[in-house]
C-alpha cells in the first residue's frame, strides 16, 4: 500500500504539490491524470524518495520513505522516471540487469538472470538485447527502461508516463501487461497517464490533479466525466460509453 499524508513540495514561494493525502490500496492499478505542470511527477518523485518533501510524509507498505534506507525501499518500490538520464553506451540487457542491483548487489545469480530474461521477453526486447541504448528507437528505449523496472520485481511500481513513445500496439500491450501484473502477481501500480481512455479502461481508480492538489479520486465511472475533465483540463469533451468503458471524444 502507498500512503501520503499532507505531502507538499515547494520551490521558493511556489507550491507545486499542495498537501496531498492519498491511500492507494495494495493490488490495485491507479492512474494519475492532470495537465502539464499539475505536480504528478513531483508527487511520484517524493513517494520514491528521489525528491525530498517540503512537508508531509509518504509511506510504502507502512515504511516512512524519508526514514527508510535506499536499498530497503528499492526492494519494495521501483520507479520509471519521466526522463531517463542513463548513459547511452549501455546495452539493453545491461540496463535491465541494473534493475536487479537492489537484490544482487552487483553479482547476478541464476535467479537474477531469469528475472532479466523474463523482463526482456515480456517487452519484446530479446532481438535487441545486445544493442546499445543509443542504437535503438525512442519507443524501444522506453520499453527497455520499463523492463528494468519490472526486473526489479517490487510489489509497488510507479511509472511516470510509461506510454511515452510507444506505438498503439505496444501501448495496448503495456497496459494489458500492467493489468496482469496487478491481477495475477498482486502488484500495486501507479502510473501517470495522459491518455484518459487507457486510464479509463485499465484503472481501478484514477487520481486527478490540478495545480498541485488532488481534485478528485475514484473509479473511472466517477472521474471520466465531462464535469471532472472540464475541471481538471479546462476543456470540453464528450464522454461516451463504448463496450462498457467510458471513452473520451474531442471535437474540432
Ligand atoms: N526544480 C524545479 N524548480 C522550480 N520549479 C519546478 C522544478 N521542478 C518542477 N517545477 C515546477 O513544478 C510544477 C510541477 O511539475 P511536475 O513535473 O511535477 O508536473 P507534471 O504534472 O509531472 O507535468 P507534466 O505532465 O508536464 O510532466 C511545474 O510547474 C514545474 O514547473
Ligand atoms: Mg511529469
TrEMBL record:
Keywords of this protein's UniProt record, alphabetized? ATP-binding, Cell membrane, Ion transport, Iron, Iron transport, Membrane, Nucleotide-binding, Transport
Q: How does the entry describe its membrane topology? A: Peripheral membrane protein
Transport as a keyword?
yes
Q: Where in the cell is it found?
A: Cell membrane
**Any one Gene Ontology BP term:** iron ion transport
Show the GO MF annotations.
ATP binding; ATP hydrolysis activity
What Gene Ontology cellular-component terms does the record carry?
A: plasma membrane
Start and end of every ABC transporter domain?
A: 2-236
Is the Nucleotide-binding keyword given for this protein? yes
Family per similarity comment: Belongs to the ABC transporter superfamily.
Q: What PANTHER family does this protein map onto?
A: IRON(3+)-HYDROXAMATE IMPORT ATP-BINDING PROTEIN FHUC (PTHR42771), PETROBACTIN IMPORT ATP-BINDING PROTEIN YCLP (PTHR42771:SF3)
Q: By what name is this protein known? A: ATP-binding cassette domain-containing protein
Amino acid at each position: 500500500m502507498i500512503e501520503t499524508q499532507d505531502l507538499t513540495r515547494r520551490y521558493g514561494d511556489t507550491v507545486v504539490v499542495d498537501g496531498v493525502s492519498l491511500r492507494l490500496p495494495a493490488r490495485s492499478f491507479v492512474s494519475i491524470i492532470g495537465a502539464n505542470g499539475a505536480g504528478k511527477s513531483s508527487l511520484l518523485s517524493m513517494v520514491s524518495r528521489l525528491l525530498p518533501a517540503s512537508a508531509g510524509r509518504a509511506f510504502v507498505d507502512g515504511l516512512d520513505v524519508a526514514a527508510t534506507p535506499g536499498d530497503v525501499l528499492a526492494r519494495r518500490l521501483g520507479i520509471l522516471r519521466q526522463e531517463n538520464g542513463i548513459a547511452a553506451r549501455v546495452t539493453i540487457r545491461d540496463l535491465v540487469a541494473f534493475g536487479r542491483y537492489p537484490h544482487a548487489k552487483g553479482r547476478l545469480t541464476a535467479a537474477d538472470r531469469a528475472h532479466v530474461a523474463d523482463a526482456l521477453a515480456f517487452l519484446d526486447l530479446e532481438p535487441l538485447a545486445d544493442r546499445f541504448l543509443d542504437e535503438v528507437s525512442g519507443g524501444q528505449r522506453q520499453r527497455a527502461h520499463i523492463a528494468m523496472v519490472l526486473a526489479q520485481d517490487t510489489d509497488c511500481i510507479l511509472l511516470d508516463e510509461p506510454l511515452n513513445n510507444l506505438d498503439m500496439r505496444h501501448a495496448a500491450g503495456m497496459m494489458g501487461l500492467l493489468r496482469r501484473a496487478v491481477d495475477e502477481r498482486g502488484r500495486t501500480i501507479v502510473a501517470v497517464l495522459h491518455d484518459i481512455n487507457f486510464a479509463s479502461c485499465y484503472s481501478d481508480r484514477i487520481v486527478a490533479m490540478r495545480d498541485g492538489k488532488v481534485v478528485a479520486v475514484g473509479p473511472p465511472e466517477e472521474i471520466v466525466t465531462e464535469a471532472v475533465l472540464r475541471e481538471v483540463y479546462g476543456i470540453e469533451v464528450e464522454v461516451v460509453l463504448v463496450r462498457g468503458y467510458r471513452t473520451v471524444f474531442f471535437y474540432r
